[in-house]
């Protein structure tokens, strides 16, 4: 039995404790006395090439964060916003077409799996953000095989994080053969996207490529071997963002619509808040109006609370010992 006494602190194994409280979360991730567990190193697919998730070394992690977070800065998001809005509008157009088509046939509308629709949209957005090109999931079924990859990648990562020994035996080749085949196809698809992006000027698009290029050049001070590093860096960083954004975005948006459809008063407040501020669809963009929507923000946060987009057992290590939630931890 993992724990004989239920509570916010659970003994997972020798020298391992699990904390389940908001207070512990704040203490752990605001402390400089904490570093990532070595288990994250098992998630590195290419030796020496890390992303912000699997980088254990503090200096590497700090560098990766600075590169990726440049893409999420306000100026970068504003520059990328037209591309994102275009992808969102395509989702809306597809929903409208489906409703008109089904309404003309009978009085019932064809049910739509919004989780799938949101996945298509989020993948296309992240494709544009990472590689400057869309996967075209909303207009073609050619790349729909991507959806079979993410669950396998997350499952593999969860297993390796708990038991790094499985990395040596290649667990995905034994238990996830279909996923392994799909991953190889994914690598081929992404490699083509990277190759096409490398043919363009680094500032041709507001995407992750330009930030990684600047970071690599500032580190090296020369263009030697920068293309090789660019491919590896872009591959691992964009791959992480794809895996991190697809299910999380679709789950949150689906949950939001689900709860709004079942709480008419909340739905009325949100729609009134939005429609009274914008007279047309083209007016909707980031800015002070959207950030002032208290009801919309409250509904999004409540949807996140009631249906968390992703649960995980993150592994961290206390370097010099610590006190967490009234529990004294030795080094």
TrEMBL record:
Coiled coil: none annotated. InterPro entries: Cyt_P450, Cyt_P450_sf, Cytochrome_P450_monoxygenase. One of its GO terms (molecular function) is iron ion binding. Its cofactor is heme. Keywords: Heme, Iron, Metal-binding, Monooxygenase, Oxidoreductase, Virulence. PANTHER family: CYTOCHROME P450, CYTOCHROME P450 MONOOXYGENASE ATNE-RELATED. Belongs to the cytochrome P450 family. This is Cytochrome P450. The lineage of its organism: Eukaryota, Fungi, Dikarya, Ascomycota, Pezizomycotina.
């Amino acid at each position: 039995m993992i724990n004989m006494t239920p509570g916010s602190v659970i003994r997972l194994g020798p020298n391992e404790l699990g904390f389940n409280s908001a207070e512990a979360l704040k203490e752990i991730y605001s402390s400089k006395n904490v570093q990532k567990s070595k288990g994250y190193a098992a998630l590195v697919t290419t030796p020496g090439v890390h992303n912000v998730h699997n980088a254990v070394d503090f200096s590497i992690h700090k560098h990766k964060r600075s590169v990726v977070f440049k893409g999420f800065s306000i100026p970068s998001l504003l520059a990328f916003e037209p591309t994102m809005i275009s992808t969102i509008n395509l989702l809306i157009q597809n929903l409208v077409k489906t409703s008109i088509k089904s309404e003309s046939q009978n009085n019932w509308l064809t049910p739509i799996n919004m989780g799938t629709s949101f996945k298509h949209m989020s993948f296309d957005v992240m494709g544009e953000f990472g590689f400057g090109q869309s996967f075209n999931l909303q207009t073609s079924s050619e790349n729909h095989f991507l959806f079979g990859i993410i669950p396998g990648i997350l499952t593999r990562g969860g297993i390796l994080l708990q038991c790094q020994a499985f990395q040596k035996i290649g667990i995905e080749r034994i238990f996830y053969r279909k996923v392994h085949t799909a991953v190889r196809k994914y690598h081929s698809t992404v490699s083509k996207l990277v190759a096409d992006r490398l043919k363009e000027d680094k500032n041709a698009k507001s995407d992750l490529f330009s930030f990684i290029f600047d970071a690599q050049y500032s580190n090296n001070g020369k263009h030697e071997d920068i293309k090789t590093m660019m491919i590896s860096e872009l591959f691992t960083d964009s791959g992480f963002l794809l895996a991190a954004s697809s299910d999380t975005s679709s789950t949150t948006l689906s949950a939001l619509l689900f709860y709004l459809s079942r709480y008419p008063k909340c739905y009325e407040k949100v729609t009134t808040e939005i429609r009274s501020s914008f007279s047309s669809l083209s007016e909707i963009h980031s800015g002070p109006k959207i950030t002032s929507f208290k009801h919309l923000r409250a509904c999004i946060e409540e949807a996140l609370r009631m249906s968390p987009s992703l649960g995980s057992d993150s592994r961290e290590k206390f370097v010099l010992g610590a006190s967490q939630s009234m529990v004294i931890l030795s080094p």
